[in-house]
Each structure stands twice: as C-alpha cells, then as structure tokens.
C-alpha cells in the first residue's frame, strides 16, 4: 500500500461510514459557532424537534457583530443586537457553551480555538466560516461549512463529504529578514490564483516551516481559502506540542503522552503522492501587498501597479481592469507611496500577540501620521490582556493608534468599525473584495509590520523605508 | 428542499470572474435571522449601477445565471445562495465554482453546473444576442440545451439523487446512528471537549 498524506490520515481516522456511491460520513471533533451563520441552523433543529448531538464538542462565540468599544453598553445596531441575542438564546436552549461579549474567553472564533488548546493535531474542526482553515496550522483537518452543514453537524456531529483532493505547496528556500508569514501566503495566492486550490486540502511543506511559530503557521493556513482550497494543513512538530502544553483544553498527564505519541505519526509518508504539487520560491520574496479586489491580485511592495495588458489570460486582464477602476489606481504607480486614510491591525489572520508585537516594534518611538486613523483590534480578549501585560497597548496609544476590544471589526465591517466610501486602508485582514471594509472602501492587504510602517508614513511603506525612531530621554 | 429535475428559463449573462460572496450579498444583509427574504440583497452594490446586467429589461424574469470562473469565492455565507434563490435564480452556470458555495447551493436546490470556458462564452453570446431564447438544464439527462446547442455536464451521483428527490440529508445520516455511536465509543480519551477544563 502506498503511503498516505497527512490529510488522508486525519480523514481516515474520522471515518464513520463509507459506502459505494455516496459521500463518507465523517466524525467532527470540534464544532465552532458564531452569531452570523448559526441562527438559521438552530431554527432548522427546532422546526424538526432535534437536539444538539454533542454540546460538549460545540463552542460558540460572539465576534462578527460585536462592537470593539463601549462593550458594556447594549449593542446599538438593532439587527446586530438581534443576532447576538439569538446566539445567546440558542446556546442556552441547546446547552452549548458560549463566550459572550465581555467574557474573558471571548474573541474571534479562529483565535479562541487555538489559544484554549482546543485546536489539536489530528482533529476535525468545522465552523460556519471559511477561515476555519486557520486551525490546520496544528495538523487538524479544519474547514468552513455553510449553514445547512452547520445544522447537520449540530444534529449528528458528522458531515457527509467526499474526500478532498490533496495538494502540496512546497515552500522552497529561506525568506530574507523582514519577510513574514503574511508575505509568504500572499505570494502563494498570487502564484496559484483564487481557484488554484479548488477542491484540495493544501499541505504547506518545506524546511522553512520548522522555524515558523504557531502564529505564523496560522496566518498561512488561514488564507488557504483565498486560494480556493478547502483547508490548509501543516504537520505538527515540537513547536506545536510546546504551544499546546499546559493550555486549558490540552490533554493532561497520561493522556498528554498518548496524544503526543499519536500526534507524531501525523505526517505525510515519504512515499505518499499528492494529487497536485507546486513549488513556491521564497529566496527572492520581499514584503507583499495587494493592489486589486481579490487576494490573488498582489505584488511586491517595491513594485508598481500592474497594467491589464501584462496579463495573458483574458479573464485576468478584465479582472485587473475592473479592479484598477474600482481601486482608483493607475498602472505604473509605485505601490509604496500610495496614500491611505486608515490602517487596520487585527483579524483572524493577523490579530494574535505576535502580530501585535511586530507592529508595536515598528511603532515604538514613532507617530502615526495625523491624517491616518489606525485601529488596533486584538483577536481575542486573552490576546488583549497579554498585550496589555507587556505594555503594547501603551505603545499603540502613544503612537496615536486606537486600542480596542476583541472582535472581527474592520475585517468585514459588520460592526461599527468601517471605512467611508472612497477611503483607502492598509489592512492585515484577508480579503480585499469590493466594499469589504465598508461600502465603496479600498483595501490593501499587508503584514502587521507593513501596516504599522504605513500608518507612520501615511502611505504604503515598508518598515525599512522609515526614518529612524526618536525615543524620548528617560 | 424542492426537488429539482429539469428547468427551462432564460439566461442572464454576467461577464465577470471572481464573483465573490461579498458581492453576491453584502454584509449588511447578513444580520437577518431567517433563510428567506434576501432578494433585495442580491448584488446590492452592483445593482446601484443602472447599467448592471441583472436589471436590464430584456433579462427580467431570467432564471439561469451565466457567470465567469471562480464564482462564489470568499465567505461561507449560505445567504449568497438564499439571495439567488429569492431573486428567482434556479441555476448558475460557470467554468468553476468555489467549493463551499457549490456545496451550499446543492443543499438548497440551487443547481450549479460547471461548463467549459468556451461553452460559457457561447452562452454569453447567445444570451446577449437572443435574450428571449430559453435554456434547459436537464438534471435527468445531465444536459444543458439552448437552441441547437447541447452540452453534457457532470454532477456527483449522490448530489444528483438528492436534488432530484429533494431528500433531507440529516434524516439520511441519522439512519447510521448506530455507526456514529460505535465511532464515539472508540474515540481516544485524549480528544478535547469544550466542557472539561
Ligand atoms: S476576522 Fe474576518 S475573516 Fe476572520 S472570522 Fe472575523 S470576519 Fe471572518
């Protein structure tokens, strides 16, 4: 028998039922819920008198609609409030654990799973949210589902699925200093396109991975969906185990030893064959930024806005033309130097402690350009507390940025944090779709370090391009 | 879910690739708690442009959307499917769909059919030249027919059967409840639960 890939091993370990001519029934270890994609699923259960099969494997949070300031007050927008009230009511009625706004466990659904140790190697994790791929950084098979599937998991703790195809993204070479996980994944999407991973689970491989922190791995896996993939995965290693050890829901005692022994088997066998393989060269990589309105429309920050004619494919050429018209950009304009109105640091892509540290590093001894509004939104309440414990909030405030409470915030602008029509932002989030950060808004996706440098310069900029920081005498 | 066997209707040509779910239904429409009532949200921003194809008089009442590749990328919001259905769209034809969108559509009885780029090009041309010409999407024969054009398509037999019968998938899965319980009995003790600290 030929060897198996990591994704195939995890799939097989969750197989409940397989029969000719129908999709497999796959067991789900962890089902995460948030307020936007769950109300109709709970309604469906109620309508048919069904229960939640495994409340103990189900966790709900409030993140998309929640305000990031004045969180003690009732939510002002009545429709947002209704959605948050619905998840509270449904969680209570169906016995599901909920981390509500204001609870120290609250945060973006893809930040709280890992930080509590629930996202573990070899588990299956689903959520009615496409960025569930984030949890694949732990060697979990984690993917987003629609509301009908949310209902199916609630009722049965399983899903009906055909096995995903497998794809290796081989990260070759060594990134230079200053190149981050965000730059790596933007370059990958730029190379393979928004449909490049369609139907596949991407496993990120290569020597570079051993040196990446769990936060960096999560950033990479998070954006797998932007390449069209069902999921992204990274084989667990000692970095993974060290991250998990001692966390709230990590195995303890003898269970820990048994778990680690199993987790060590979770790697692609040497003789396994992927359905698809691509190599991505990191040696020449420099910080990346998006110029268009889909996440494959990216380029090195030190290059220029491309011309539609530079694309051979007619669909890509047309997409470039449309994107430039929407973004208000002219081919040949240097990307560095495009002025911005706002900078958003946060989201499930780059809202973790390491991301805040990287941005604070750039902001120390510098000021945010007075024309720029910079919003810093920690990914979870725990991230917020940890950042405050090391004084990062002070760095952001001193620089002139706004320090907020946890949530999705300006990543999708469902709460009061959004851009005005025509405003341009550098954002550490994951999607640069038309209107994503507010109707008529323009988004440039960047890493936390580039976001901070851009806030200081008032225009897209790399940290290296900034004048030296000035520290007050002490 | 309504069974789907065959559908005949007029086409609306949407000459765009990467039609993402934020365009299909902008975020402000996601705050509702129901599965219906999303017609006003469909392409809400693009429709503020009076030139946008969906609202041109010749395409009024069209039920088959013909779009470019990477249709439905982005978020998992099933609202995108509900909005298309509420507007009256029953079939979307595209060279490639995003996986989650495709799964959502098939679960709601919105048929998504993948066709080669050149066929989509031809359908765009026809829809623009003969907007009144009907197209038939036949799930029993696995064929798309428009005028003298007949193109086969593929669909996973299970999804096809589910669509044609309008089957409730949860019921179908619960028939295997004993196997689910057996699986649970052999899950390792180190697997996490939300309730144990
Ligand atoms: S931070 Fe953005 S991408 Fe992540 S879950 Fe929230 S809205 Fe979705």
Automatic annotation (TrEMBL), chain A:
Enzyme class: lyase
Gene name of this polypeptide: leuC
HAMAP family documented for this protein: LeuC_type1
Cofactor(s) needed: [4Fe-4S] cluster
PROSITE patterns on file: ACONITASE_1, ACONITASE_2
UniProt xrefs under InterPro entries: 3-IsopropMal_deHydase_lsu, Acnase/IPM_dHydase_lsu_aba_1/3, Acoase/IPM_deHydtase_lsu_aba, Aconitase_4Fe-4S_BS, Aconitase_4Fe-4S_dom, IPM_dehydratase_rel_enz, IPMI_cat
NCBIfam families: leuC, PRK05478.1, PRK12466.1
Gene3D superfamilies in alphabetical order: Aconitase, domain 3
Subunit structure as annotated in this protein's UniProt entry: Heterodimer of LeuC and LeuD.
Family, as annotated: Belongs to the aconitase/IPM isomerase family. LeuC type 1 subfamily.
Domain of life: Bacteria
Organism of derivation: Streptomyces thermocoprophilus
Molecular functions per Gene Ontology: 3-isopropylmalate dehydratase activity
Involved pathway(s): Amino-acid biosynthesis; L-leucine biosynthesis; L-leucine from 3-methyl-2-oxobutanoate: step 2/4
Domain Aconitase/3-isopropylmalate dehydratase large subunit alpha/beta/alpha: 8-458
Reactions mediated catalytically: (2R,3S)-3-isopropylmalate = (2S)-2-isopropylmalate
Pfam families reported for this sequence: Aconitase (PF00330)
Name of protein: 3-isopropylmalate dehydratase large subunit
Known function: Catalyzes the isomerization between 2-isopropylmalate and 3-isopropylmalate, via the formation of 2-isopropylmaleate.
Keywords of this entry: 4Fe-4S, Amino-acid biosynthesis, Branched-chain amino acid biosynthesis, Iron, Iron-sulfur, Leucine biosynthesis, Lyase, Metal-binding
Residues passing through the membrane, by range: none
Residue sites binding [4Fe-4S] cluster per the record: 348, 408, 411
This enzyme's EC code(s): 4.2.1.33
CDD domains to which the protein is assigned, alphabetical: IPMI
Cofactor note: Binds 1 [4Fe-4S] cluster per subunit.
TrEMBL record, chain B:
Matches recorded under Pfam families: Aconitase_C
Role: Catalyzes the isomerization between 2-isopropylmalate and 3-isopropylmalate, via the formation of 2-isopropylmaleate.
EC number(s) per entry: 4.2.1.33
SUPFAM superfamilies: LeuD/IlvD-like
CDD domains to which the protein is assigned, alphabetical: IPMI_Swivel (cd01577)
Catalytic activity, reaction form: (2R,3S)-3-isopropylmalate = (2S)-2-isopropylmalate
Residue ranges occupied by any Aconitase A/isopropylmalate dehydratase small subunit swivel domain in the UniProt entry: 1-117
UniProt record similarity statement: Belongs to the LeuD family. LeuD type 1 subfamily.
Record text on subunit structure and interactions: Heterodimer of LeuC and LeuD.
Name of the featured protein: 3-isopropylmalate dehydratase small subunit
Pathway: Amino-acid biosynthesis; L-leucine biosynthesis; L-leucine from 3-methyl-2-oxobutanoate: step 2/4
Enzyme class: lyase
GO molecular function: 3-isopropylmalate dehydratase activity
Entry keyword set: Amino-acid biosynthesis, Branched-chain amino acid biosynthesis, Leucine biosynthesis, Lyase
Record NCBIfam families: leuD, PRK01641.1
């Amino acid at each position: 028998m030929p060897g198996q890939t990591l994704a195939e091993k995890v799939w097989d370990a969750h197989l409940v039922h397989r029969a000719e001519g129908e999709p497999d029934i796959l067991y789900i270890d962890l089902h995460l819920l948030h307020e936007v994609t769950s109300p109709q699923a709970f309604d469906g259960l109620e309508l048919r008198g069904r229960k939640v099969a495994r409340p103990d494997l189900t966790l709900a949070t409030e993140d998309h609609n929640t305000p990031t300031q004045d969180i003690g007050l009732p939510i002002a927008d009545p429709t947002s409030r209704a959605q948050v009230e619905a998840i509270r009511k449904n969680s209570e009625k169906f016995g599901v654990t909920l981390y509500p706004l204001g609870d120290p466990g609250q945060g973006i659904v893809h930040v709280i799973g890992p930080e509590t140790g629930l996202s573990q190697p070899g588990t299956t994790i689903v959520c009615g949210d496409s960025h569930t791929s984030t949890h694949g950084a732990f060697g979990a098979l984690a993917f987003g589902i629609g509301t009908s599937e949310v209902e199916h998991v609630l009722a049965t703790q399983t899903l009906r699925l055909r096995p995903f195809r497998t794809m290796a993204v081989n990260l070759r070479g060594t990134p230079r200093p200053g190149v981050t996980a965000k730059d790596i994944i933007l370059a990958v999407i730029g190379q393979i396109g928004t449909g490049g991973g369609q139907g596949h689970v991407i496993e990120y491989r290569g020597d570079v991975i051993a040196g990446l922190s769990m936060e960096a791995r999560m950033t990479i896996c998070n954006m797998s969906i932007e390449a069209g993939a069902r999921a992204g995965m990274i084989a667990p290693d000692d970095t993974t185990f060290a991250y998990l050890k001692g966390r709230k829901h990590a195995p303890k005692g003898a269970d820990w030893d048994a778990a680690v022994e199993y987790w060590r088997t979770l790697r692609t066998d040497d003789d396994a064959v992927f359905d698809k393989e691509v190599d991505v060269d990191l040696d020449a990589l420099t910080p990346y930024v998006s110029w268009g309105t889909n996440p494959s429309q990216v380029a090195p920050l030190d290059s220029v806005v491309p011309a539609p004619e530079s694309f051979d494919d007619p669909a890509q050429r047309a997409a470039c033309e449309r994107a430039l018209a929407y973004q208000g950009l002219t081919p040949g304009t240097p990307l560095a130097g495009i002025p911005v109105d706002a900078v958003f640091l946060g989201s499930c892509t780059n809202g973790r402690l390491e991301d805040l540290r990287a941005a604070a590093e750039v902001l120390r001894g510098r000021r945010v350009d007075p024309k720029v509004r910079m919003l810093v939104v920690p990914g979870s309440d725990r991230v917020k507390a940890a950042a405050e414990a090391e004084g990062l909030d002070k760095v952001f405030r001193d620089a002139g940025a706004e320090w907020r409470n946890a949530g999705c915030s300006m990543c999708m602008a469902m709460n009061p944090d959004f851009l005005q029509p025509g405003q341009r932002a550098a954002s550490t989030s994951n999607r640069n779709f038309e209107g994503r950060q507010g109707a008529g808004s323009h988004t440039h996706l960047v890493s936390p370090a580039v976001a901070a440098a851009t806030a200081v310069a008032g225009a897209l900029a790399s940290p290296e391009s900034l004048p030296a920081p000035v520290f007050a005498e002490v | 879910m309504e069974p789907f066997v065959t559908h005949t209707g007029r086409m609306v040509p949407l000459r765009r690739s990467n039609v993402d779910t934020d365009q299909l239904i902008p975020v402000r429409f996601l705050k509702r708690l129901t599965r219906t009532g999303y017609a006003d949200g469909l392409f809400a921003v693009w429709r503020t442009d009076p030139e946008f194809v969906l609202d041109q008089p010749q395409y009024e009442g069209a039920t088959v959307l013909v779009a470019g590749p990477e249709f439905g990328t982005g978020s998992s919001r099933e609202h995108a499917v509900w909005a298309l259905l509420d507007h009256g769209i029953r079939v979307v034809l595209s060279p490639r769909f995003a996986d989650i969108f495709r799964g959502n559509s098939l679960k709601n009885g919105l048929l998504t059919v993948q066709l080669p780029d050149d066929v989509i090009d031809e359908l765009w041309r026809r829809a623009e030249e003969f907007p009144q010409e009907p197209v038939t999407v036949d799930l029993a024969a696995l064929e798309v027919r428009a005028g003298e054009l007949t193109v086969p398509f593929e669909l996973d037999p299970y999804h096809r059967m589910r669509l044609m019968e309008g089957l409730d998938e949860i019921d179908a899965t619960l028939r295997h409840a004993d196997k689910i319980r057996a699986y649970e009995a052999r899950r390792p003790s180190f697997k996490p639960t939300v309730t144990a600290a």
